[in-house]
Amino acid sequence: MTTTIPARSLAVEGDIGVLTLSYPPVNALSQVMREAIVEGMREANANPAVKAIVLICDGRTFLAGADITEFGKPPKAPSLREAQDQIEGASKPVIAAIHGTALGGGLEVALCCHYRVAVPSAKCGLPEVHLGLLPGAGGTQRLPRIVGVEKALDMILNGSHVPARKCLEMGLVDALVPEGELRAGAIAFARTVLAEGRPLRRVRDNDDKLLAARAHPEIFAKVRQDNARKFRGFPAPEANIQCIEAAVNLSFDEGLATERRLFTELVAGTPSIAQRYAFFAERKATKIPDVPDDTPTARVAKVGIIGAGTMGGGIAMNFANVGIPVVLVETQQAALDRGLAVVRKNYENSAKRGRFTTEQVEQRMDLLTGSLQMEALADCDLVIEAVFENMAVKKEIFGKLDRICKPGAVLATNTSALDVNEIASAATSRPEAVVGMHFFSPANVMKLLEVVRGAKTSATALATAMQIAKKIGKVAAVSGVCPGFIGNRILAARSAQAQAMVLEGAMPWDIDQVLYDFGLPMGPFAMSDLAGLDIGWSKETSKGATIRERLCEMDRRGQKNGAGYYDYAVVDGTRTAQPSEVTRGIIRDLMGEQGKVARAIGKEEILERCVYAMVNEGAKILDEGIAIRASDIDVVWVNGYGWPVYRGGPMFYADTVGLPTVVARLQAYGDRMGPGFTLSPLLERMAAEGKSFTR
Ligand code: T1G
């Protein structure tokens, strides 16, 4: 007998009631789903034929958490707490049957069940910290009671999706059932529970796992210290830690009250609003208005990469990591060998950190082959050119690809700034197959992929690039063709202000400090030292006209040779950057030669000129149609340049400040913004009209 209403159905199989929930695409705990749980549990509890209940979900995953779209709006009954109480207070055993990802509120619902089973491919997590939140439905109180405080701290503060096997080891799930047989396996487990007369086990009733932490409160100080740098500027991690401390030190209900109070504070705060915005912005960036979701795409079974340097090797790792074979093409055997050796070293380092087993390293390396012949690319479905930034070389390569590659192959360039349309013109018979795929270094680590759409790029080529980006775990955003695309063009706007200000009286370390304190991982000068000041510089052509050129002429090439804008020393084994009197002297000389007199530049001016110049450039990028939407610009800067996600991105931040304020400040700086600066008409218009980019 089955009763089915929207979102739920209850089937009685013998003495087991199977309550199936359904709310595509990810079974988020919307109001409909909460109601389905409350009503479904009432029905199952009231049915005398039902001796135990299996809670299972339709579709691709178990409950994936609260419905994030409901946050910030008036709550709608029933609450998640009411749904959980129906489960935890049931008069018969409730077994959660988990597949896909049981996340956030979804896992918190499962923790209210008396038992949990999962298929091996399932994962469980409490990733609320990534939304600037904390598990607000008892997760901070129940998880430590199951897995212990240290594992709970790790899981909650990293928001990790823990594979089912590890969940079994931790006691988070009670049994694994065969893949594809979740329903039958859960029913069998329920029958075992009944046959063995197992109790209605409530997580809240058992504090045993908390005792160790009670005896060692210092673990909380340690976790704070160990993560200070990673959590800098984020309010949520500290709130999560306080909730888990409450679990250790207070009663269950007092701990729940602490959790509710801190959740309520976080959910209303700008950092969480920004992080939730970023979550949806990443997903919105995959939507291309004139490229429908059902656009045919090339099946990428084999990838070719031209250039086995740092970028080519890093790019190759992305595909090997998901089981796609790669052929790397180089011109010299030594370069090819060196490239593959670097890749192996990267994998072995990851293995040392426990990320891969040695077997997995070999599996990945077996997928990487090399060749000195471009003809080896003939059977590749996607070819990515990753040679140095020289237009003539790239055009020569694409001319050859045009002759060698099979029909339907997508031809991508990893250029970080060059004109993709000009490169495409070299692939004379198929410019529509050419697309930019701008990876960020280190390509096997950085999440962002700028997918650059040329004037002739076909919908298929574009859709293929976006699809493969998701498969290799990248966050992709589409850019039109312009110098620097979205990210580097905005970076250049910021650099122009930073470079100008060091010739007006601010020191590089002053500017870096302001941007570091704002939340960026490092400022422009530290970034230049890290990348190397001599990129694009040559002794022969150097004119000594800029600070950078003079530093290079003094062989101060950045971190790599111990001196750049900063002096680098190794103190207690760690490299430290110190302000340099050499750099200060170069700045003084240059200002003297240019007849400039230093003035004091305050932190506010430094921040506003750098950040609002970025916003202004973003508005131009939007106005020119280089970016499809403002949130794509934010996706680029959060995922490619370390913009603090709790500030949403440059465009979200501008809305937080208020566009009228941004415009007024830029106008107040006037000529100080430099001769190359012009106010974006779109920005000015939107400010005047009281509009916002992202709200
Ligand atoms: N709420 C609303 N919509 C969601 C959603 C959610 N929780 N999760 C996903 N979506 C939408 C998403 O925007 C996209 O929409 C579609 O579903 C597919 O998502 C009280 C407070 C589950 C691993 O943080 O991690 O519970 O673009 O493209 O790659 O303590 O979605 O199609 O219109 O990402 O297969 C905690 C967030 C919430 C999980 C699936 N839960 N979601 O990945 O699909 S807070 C999360 C994910 C909470 C409680 C707290 C992933 C996924 P559209 P997708 P996917």
Automatic annotation (TrEMBL):
<keyword id="KW-0443">Lipid metabolism</keyword>
<dbReference type="Pfam" id="PF02737">
    <property type="entry name" value="3HCDH_N"/>
</dbReference>
<dbReference type="GO" id="GO:0006635">
    <property type="term" value="P:fatty acid beta-oxidation"/>
</dbReference>
<keyword id="KW-0520">NAD</keyword>
<keyword id="KW-0576">Peroxisome</keyword>
<dbReference type="InterPro" id="IPR018376">
    <property type="entry name" value="Enoyl-CoA_hyd/isom_CS"/>
</dbReference>
<keyword id="KW-0276">Fatty acid metabolism</keyword>
<dbReference type="GO" id="GO:0003857">
    <property type="term" value="F:(3S)-3-hydroxyacyl-CoA dehydrogenase (NAD+) activity"/>
</dbReference>
<dbReference type="GO" id="GO:0004300">
    <property type="term" value="F:enoyl-CoA hydratase activity"/>
</dbReference>
<keyword id="KW-0413">Isomerase</keyword>
<dbReference type="Pfam" id="PF00725">
    <property type="entry name" value="3HCDH"/>
</dbReference>
<dbReference type="Pfam" id="PF00378">
    <property type="entry name" value="ECH_1"/>
</dbReference>
<dbReference type="InterPro" id="IPR006108">
    <property type="entry name" value="3HC_DH_C"/>
</dbReference>
<feature type="domain" description="3-hydroxyacyl-CoA dehydrogenase NAD binding">
    <location>
        <begin position="302"/>
        <end position="478"/>
    </location>
</feature>
<dbReference type="GO" id="GO:0016853">
    <property type="term" value="F:isomerase activity"/>
</dbReference>
<protein>
    <submittedName>
        <fullName>Short chain enoyl-CoA hydratase /3-hydroxyacyl-CoA dehydrogenase</fullName>
    </submittedName>
</protein>
<dbReference type="InterPro" id="IPR036291">
    <property type="entry name" value="NAD(P)-bd_dom_sf"/>
</dbReference>
<feature type="domain" description="3-hydroxyacyl-CoA dehydrogenase C-terminal">
    <location>
        <begin position="606"/>
        <end position="691"/>
    </location>
</feature>
<keyword id="KW-0442">Lipid degradation</keyword>
<dbReference type="InterPro" id="IPR029045">
    <property type="entry name" value="ClpP/crotonase-like_dom_sf"/>
</dbReference>
<keyword id="KW-0511">Multifunctional enzyme</keyword>
<dbReference type="GO" id="GO:0070403">
    <property type="term" value="F:NAD+ binding"/>
</dbReference>
<feature type="domain" description="3-hydroxyacyl-CoA dehydrogenase C-terminal">
    <location>
        <begin position="484"/>
        <end position="568"/>
    </location>
</feature>
<comment type="pathway">
    <text>Lipid metabolism; fatty acid beta-oxidation.</text>
</comment>
<comment type="subunit">
    <text>Monomer.</text>
</comment>
<dbReference type="InterPro" id="IPR006176">
    <property type="entry name" value="3-OHacyl-CoA_DH_NAD-bd"/>
</dbReference>
<comment type="similarity">
    <text>In the N-terminal section; belongs to the enoyl-CoA hydratase/isomerase family.</text>
</comment>
<comment type="similarity">
    <text>Belongs to the enoyl-CoA hydratase/isomerase family.</text>
</comment>
<dbReference type="InterPro" id="IPR001753">
    <property type="entry name" value="Enoyl-CoA_hydra/iso"/>
</dbReference>
<keyword id="KW-0560">Oxidoreductase</keyword>
<keyword id="KW-0456">Lyase</keyword>
<dbReference type="InterPro" id="IPR008927">
    <property type="entry name" value="6-PGluconate_DH-like_C_sf"/>
</dbReference>
